[in-house]
Amino acid sequence: MYCIKCGTQLPDDAAFCYKCGAKVGFTSTQPAPSASGGPAQSVSSPAQPVLAGADVKELKCPSCGAPITPKFGEMVITCEYCGSSVSLSPEGWRSIQKHTMFLPTFTDKDRVLGLIHQVMDRGIIHRHLQESSTLEEMSLTMVPYWLVPVSARTTVVAANVAAEVGTVAATGVLAGILGGEMGGRRGGMGGGGVVDGLLTGATSLRLRGHFFIMVTLLIPLATADFLNYALTEDGSIFGVNALVNNTYYIYNASLVIFAVAAVTFFAVANSRLGLVLKSIRENEVAAESLGINTSKFKMVAFALSNLFAGMIGAVYVFSNGVASPTDFGLLFSALPVFMCALGGMGTIVGPIIGTILLEGSIDLLRVNYIQDARLLIAALLLLLVLLFFPKGIWGYIKRGG
Amino acid sequence: MSQLLIVKDLKKRFGGISALNGVSFEINTGEFVGIIGPNGAGKTTFFNTVSGSLKPDSGKVIFRGVDITGMRPSAIVRLGLARTFQLVKPFLNLSVLENVALAALSRRRREHDGLSPEAAALEVLRIVGLEARADNLASKLTHGELKRLGVAQGLVLDLLLLLLDEPFGCLSAEEISIVSEALRERSSLGVSFVIIEHRVRELMKLVSRVIALDQGSVIKVGTPDEVVNDERVLEAFLGRSSGIARSKGN
Ligand SMILES: Nc1ncnc2c1ncn2[C@@H]1O[C@H](COP(=O)(O)OP(=O)(O)O)[C@@H](O)[C@H]1O
Ligand SMILES: [Mg+2]
Ligand SMILES: [Zn+2]
Ligand SMILES: [Zn+2]
């Protein structure tokens, strides 16, 4: 079998991809959703100690019996088959790379306060937080630590995340409309979570053409980096349960969303809103001088496309089994742009053709060595298409017909 | 007569060039004003800064008592002031009707008469004589037809003040009389016009007052007769720039 996410070849009974960590099968020890419909609790098995020396070559997983081969010096190992963690017994604790049980050497209280102020001053959401804060209590907690080699996999199944993505998309639409009403005042829409589409919308509205595409590409990357940072900084990870484990449902949900999106976009394209959006695409300056508030309508377009991106994102989380900011790296962010350009931008059929072609070619390229070069291959393909069919494949067909 | 538009000491520089060098004047309600000046005098820049397409470096634009300096063009349109472009900017991949209907979405009296944008667009297309071309793509039009399309977009907005940048360029004598007639009719209904035009003879038949610009400054304001016979205006046109203007085909 192959990893559904990165295409790496895996043992047929593997539960996790050893390369990217995606859940690939449903053979795990995780209990199936209860018949009552209540959310199933996924039990994250604590690391089970096993008596074995640090240089042991082979051992058996205590929960599923699968063979485990620790790499040299590893002390906590994840079973590739069932996902449970195994830690080697104390005699193995030899390859500690670094540890401390000593108090950190802060010279005095002022230096500690200085550090805290520095952090508060740079705060991401509120800058200069320290000016409006009073220090009420200081306590010292000592956390001794050991650094040991570990190969670990954590699965995060996300249902709350999915729901959140949906809410964010809906908020995106609302805020897009509100944003228009507010005359695009940017400061007013902080809200709760990071509404990525809106963020992108507001920032790139004043840019055009290639710069616009660049920014729409860069902001998701920056957001992913930011979330990644925010998550690892305080150590918390979304912990959510699967709603469905059945690929059949996931497929059908995707199909329904796709159909609704296609019909919606077709209706929009043939409405007055569509006419306005087309005029902005053709000539923004002219549209603006005819009384069309171009920023407002670009925001509406963003909100609309993000609504569906958000909906399908919710399904994606289930199909992937893992939601992590790193999922949305360069390849994943660039692919939709490639797909549109390949099939033909500014059409509804174009991106569908582009998606089928690119997704199809990715399937064909599911070989270990090639997968790392996929972005390169996709870029080459795009370059060739743009060279010979500047309007994309569908644009070419439409003009010919 | 009340003052519809007041422009105070408008300045705009492009690098080393001073395109507008402190331009001030007023337009009254219902007035039909012409702007003349040699190429590069700053006429188009003046329209750009008044209509919101460009932000002036300094100075004020007050329309209907509202300070519109630096406002976005669509907001200024909603207040009742629009402009057409010297180089027409039609939406080439949309039909002629769609081009005008788009403008009709922002029509001033849309709520009052309940006319659909498409109906309003058709009516204006009839006025400028493009009715038969309504369903053609704009890219199929001739230069003259595109210019008339631009005027139609301006007219359908049904505004209080329309700035027209060389609407007669590329037009045949017949087309000029069609457009002039349409403008004169709107003017009689109380709409004000400011019109930049190189074809002085046709312009003088329409306007009641002329402003002459040269090198970013107003050099003369007066009736068509006064301006045409002014010493400095003649010098600006004939003495220095006429050769250049002619060689550029303007
Ligand atoms: N966007 C621009 N960038 C730089 N220079 C400009 C720009 N627009 C106009 N100019 C300059 O400003 C001057 C006035 O131009 P313009 O207003 O177009 O004149 P007119 O319409 O009277 O022929 C010219 O010297 C022109 O080169
Ligand atoms: Mg000009
Ligand atoms: Zn993988
Ligand atoms: Zn196991």
UniProtKB/TrEMBL annotation, chain B:
Matches recorded under PROSITE patterns: ABC_TRANSPORTER_2 (PS50893)
Q: Which GO terms describe its molecular function?
A: ATP binding; ATP hydrolysis activity
Q: Which InterPro entries match?
A: AAA+_ATPase (IPR003593), ABC_AA/LPS_Transport (IPR051120), ABC_transporter-like_ATP-bd (IPR003439), BCA_ABC_TP_C (IPR032823), P-loop_NTPase (IPR027417)
Q: Which UniProt keywords apply?
A: ATP-binding, Nucleotide-binding, Transport
Species assigned in the record? Candidatus Marsarchaeota G2 archaeon ECH_B_2
Instruction: Spell out the Pfam families in the cross-references.
Output: ABC_tran (PF00005), BCA_ABC_TP_C (PF12399)
GO CC terms in record: plasma membrane
User: PANTHER family given for it?
Assistant: CONSERVED COMPONENT OF ABC TRANSPORTER FOR NATURAL AMINO ACIDS (PTHR45772:SF9), CONSERVED COMPONENT OF ABC TRANSPORTER FOR NATURAL AMINO ACIDS-RELATED (PTHR45772)
Keyword check for DNA damage: no
Q: Taking every annotated instance into account, which residue ranges of this chain make up the domain ABC transporter?
A: 5-240
The protein's name is ABC transporter domain-containing protein
Q: Which domain of life is it from?
A: Archaea
